[in-house]
Amino acid sequence: MVKLFNKEAVEEIRKAIRKWENEVVPLWLRRIPERMEEFTTLSEIPVKRVYTPADIEDFDHTEKLGLPGTYPYTRGIHATMYRARVWTMRMFSGYGGPEETNKRLKFLIEHGETGLSLAFDYPTLIGLDPDDPMAEGEVGIVGVSVPSIVDMEIIFDKINMGKVTTNMTINPPAPILLSFYVAVAEKQGVPYDKIGGTTQNDPLKEFIAQKSYVFPPEPAVKIGMDLIEWSVKNIPKWNPISISGYHIREAGSDAVQEIAFTIADGIEYVRQLIARGLDVDVFAPRLSFFWDSHINFFEEVAKFRAARRMWAKIMREWFGAKKSRSMWMRFHTQTAGCSLTAQQPWNNIVRTAYEALAAVLGGTQSLHTNSFDEPFRVPSEFAAKIALRTQQILAYETGVADVIDPLGGSYYVEWLTDEIEERAWKYIDRIERMGGMLEAVKKGYPQKEVIDTSYRFQKEVEENKRFIVGVNIFADKDVEEIRKVPLLEFRQEEIERRQKERIRKVRAMRNEQHWKRALDKLRRSAERGENVMPYILNAVKAYATLGEIMNTLKEVYGVYVEPPLY
Amino acid sequence: MSSPHSTKIKRRYKVLVAKLGIDGHDRGAKVIARALKDAGFDVVYTGIRQSPEQVVYAALQEDVDVIGVSILSGAHMHHMKRLIAKLKEADAMDIPVVLGGTIPVVDVDELKSIGVKEIFLPGTSLKEIVEKVRELAEEKRKKEEDLTSL
Questions:
Q1: What are the pLDDT digits (tens) for B44-60?
Q2: Annotation: CATH topology of B11-148
């Protein structure tokens, strides 16, 4: 316990500040008043004119920072960080049918992308086959349609699944999509211990944000934990969960709520897995996180650092983790979709670049940069390429990847990191008192908090307390610029028809008896409360479709309907 | 104020905020529902994953003055065509329909041509939306009054 600043030094700084505030600052204020009465971050944290050692006077280097790759990992989880290998450039992509997506993935790989990330369409996200009446008009729009093992096979045509890692943003149907993936990898001859990637599989945040929930909270969590348990035992390189703050932030939370609610989700999962009799050091190294990188630059950098420190403390002190890997908060980051504007869309390239820089200075393991055309549609090749190049410029031109945590030691950033951590702990304490996040979600607590914050933010924009260039400041009257954006064109009706035909063919060609038996076994395993994962893998190999497997599970677990609160 | 109607208590304008289709992006719908409520409207929010049939049913059941639809899935053209068709079937085209979400400006003309009264593009202020909804509700009430005074 050695403090970085001695008492006399801090006292002297305090004296200097008082003198400056009394004698120097007023002269300047008289000349030009400050732009605002109070400056705050996006999370409404008031920030001062300047920060000095007096703001972090008790700063203990060992306790707060350590060194890169050492507890509490504030400065990064690896000792060499991007000096060894830059972050993984993982562009979230997918649209239309599996053919279009296969082509897009190959395009991105060809241009230097280093990890794959699949975006699914809405029917797939909530587990509907393309010929389900509810899926009509939605097939292939916001992502790729993957209702069967056959579609997955086409997506990975001539892509070696033993060489790439793939993120799949999928939640209630995660065990099904993972089974498609594993079964296709097996067909390619890839051994289980070479299958790498991530399933999002974060059921609790579905109720707080994203809203692609299907099952009620308790069975939703149960199925998610089944996947994790199966994965750590069978496909050791897989990240079975990506505990996600991204959607919570996009739904309107602030940075503090984003990390607080997400870490609270993580705590719930760790407890659930320990209750299954799993050793924390067996599964904890496979847990991963997913953050938003928003536009308030320093707050974002501080957020990443605070979250990393908190998770290390929780894993070591609450759950007795021994392995350092169990304490690592490994995370993917996506720049903030909600910060993009339809007005003056080219400005989005600049926003995304700043947000990407914050993520890199925050020590992310992988990064998706949004394309400037995303307020309108799934990105065009042109726009996706600029977004990827934005990362490559950061990594290879700017030098920001050469020194680890270069903002560490900034009085402001260290103060803000502490402040965000302290505020996040308050939320976590409250959630703990409610009995943990599963209970808090059932009570609607985080849902309500997110709605309140998003409304408050919108009011601030309306009242010109927050500025968005092109929207409430420097706006153009003429919208012709928007018409000039070359949007991705594809024939949705045709893709929908093709996907419907294919799923019917799959149903027609399979062995009826195998298929029926596999679904019956799945139903019985779910009724008995067993881990459903092996039965789902068995069912997809018998060509059961996404919708059929989901319906079987719905019969056992029921479906969730959200109370329409606003 | 001498009209016989002035003694009657005026019902507050009522708006249905509906999430049509299966996308879960409900931030905008909820912010707008709250803004309308704060502006003195009665607001009914449907929750997510609504079919056109459900939206029409809710609109008639709740006797709303305006239907506000929010879609962020890109499937707006498909869903709005079906919604308008269902409204016609129910002889309920007197209820004005407005739409917000990730709607590209290039789709505005076609949406208007099928009968969507107003499209709120991304970045539209709450104030504008509230004013337009009020205007449409007023128009609808006025038409009703004109009919009843015949």
A1: 999 999 999 999 999 99
A2: Rossmann fold (3.40.50)
ipTM (interface pTM): 0.90
CATH 3.20.20.240 given to domain A65-462: yes
Q: B6-23: per-residue pLDDT in tens?
A: 445 678 999 999 999 999
Write down the pLDDT at residue B4: 46
* H-helix segments, A156-296: 174-187, 203-208, 217-234, 246-250, 255-275, 280-283
Domain residue extents for chain A = 7-62, 65-462
A123: closest chain B residue by CA: B22
Q: pLDDT-derived band of residue B145, with 50, 70 and 90 as boundaries?
A: confident
Report the amino acid identity of residue A387. Answer: A
Under an 8 A CB cutoff, do A343 and B123 touch? yes
Most A CBs within 10 Å, among B15, B19, B30, to test the A interface = B30
Contact of A251 with chain B, judged by CB distance below 8 Å, is answered with yes
Give the pLDDT confidence of B29-86 residue by residue, as tens digits. Answer: 999 999 999 999 999 999 999 999 999 999 999 999 999 999 999 999 999 999 999 9
What residue ranges of chain A have pLDDT lower than 50? Answer: none
Three-state SS string over chain B comes to: CCCHHHHCCCCCCEEEEEEECCCCCCHHHHHHHHHHHHCCCEEEECCCCECHHHHHHHHHHCCCCEEEEEECCCCHHHHHHHHHHHHHHCCCCCCCEEEEECCCHHHHHHHHHHCCCEEECCCCCHHHHHHHHHHHHHHHHHHHHHHHCC
Q: Which two tokens stand for residue A230?
A: 């199966």
Q: Which residues contact A445 (CB under 8 A, 6 or more apart)?
A: A430, A431, A434
pLDDT score at B8? 57
A170 at B interface, C-beta within 8 A? no
Provide, as residue numbers in chain A, all residues whose Cβ is less than 8 Å from the Cβ of B25.
211
Q: Do A462 and B123 touch (CB under 8 A)?
A: no
A/B interface, count of CB pairs below 8 Å: 104
Q: Residue B109 burial (CB < 10 Å; 0-12/13-18/19+)? A: exposed
Query: Does the CB of A123 have a partner CB in chain B at under 8 Å?
Result: yes
Segment B91-112, tens digit of pLDDT: 999 999 999 999 988 899 999 9
Chain B interface residues facing chain A, Cβ-Cβ under 8 Å? 17, 21-27, 29-31, 33-35, 37, 43, 45-49, 51, 73-75, 78-79, 82, 102, 104-106, 121-123, 125-127
Question: pLDDT for B111-141, tens place per residue?
Answer: 999 999 999 998 899 999 999 999 999 999 9
CB pair distance less than 8 Å for B29 and A566: yes
Nearest one of B68, B74, B71, B75 to B97, comparing CA atoms? B68
Give A423-434 pLDDT, tens digit per residue: 999 999 999 999
**Residue A325: burial class (beta carbons within 10 Å; 0-12, 13-18, 19+):** middle
